[in-house]
Amino acid sequence: MRGGRDLDHVVMPVADLGSARELLTGLGFTVAPEASHPFGSGNACVFFADGSYLEPLALLDRDLAETRAAEGNAFLRRDIAYRLRHPLPAFTGVAIRSADALADRDTFSFAGFDGGEILEFGRPFTGPDGRVIDLSFRLAFAAERAAPETFVFACQRLFDFALDRSALTRHPNRVTGIAHLVFAADEPDRFRGFLEAVLRCESEVINSLGFSAAIGNARIEVLTPDGLAARYGTSVRAESGLRLVGLLLETEALETVGALAPETGRRPTEILGRLVVPIGDESGIFLAFETRRR
């Protein structure tokens, strides 16, 4: 049985939601309708059958977002700082499921990884039937000073009803979920303490290429440049210590992904039975696909 925290979603900063939708739809994903946050950002999510999701995130009202960041919104402060220094799209935030974000913040702080004030907010969600539902969340942030471009946060839902996202989890590329979070680090061991503490996991494989660990519903890999080249055929350096550079997704139809990727202008690489699709020309991020393990 796996230990560790369950992955809730991955934050993917993008320049605009229209371009992100075009790319992801071209790769065979069903993209949800756009939703806005009350602090100037918005998303168009890709939901998976395993309960996790990818959150392409754009600034819909930059002035409002910068104001809220200056007032202490830890989520926006990190997002805007990243956008000022790095090309997009990118992967920056890892959200873990939480039953008590207030307790999680105490845990993060005690471990030395306090990432800022609690954030509580609500936003509308438009379901497949067109019905709009108000959703509320509480977030608690964890951060490692040596890794300013990557953060983890606990995400607590403050509503007690289940959302029917079944129509949104059916994708033409037949992807069912996120199997691995792939990080780049020149010195992976430097970040083991941070990731193990906030994700409540224990590293299982440790070697010269990096380390990996199981969390509740996925795995994390923290790889050196040589490790990334060996496992994913890509080369990305982590100038700022630790970067989330790729996601390994499970699909029931790998050949469909292989057929769709070239139509988007992306050239997939096959390595170790996986297809690796670069989606960030300058940022170097990628989506990798493998056949779902039954």
UniProtKB/TrEMBL annotation:
Domain of life: Bacteria
Coiled coil (UniProt feature): none
Pfam family, one: Glyoxalase_3
InterPro entries, A to Z: Glyas_Bleomycin-R_OHBP_Dase (IPR029068), Glyoxalase-like_dom (IPR025870)
Residues of the Glyoxalase-like domain: 7-198
Protein name listed in UniProt: Glyoxalase-like domain-containing protein
Organism: Aureimonas endophytica
Taxonomic path: Bacteria, Pseudomonadati, Pseudomonadota, Alphaproteobacteria, Hyphomicrobiales
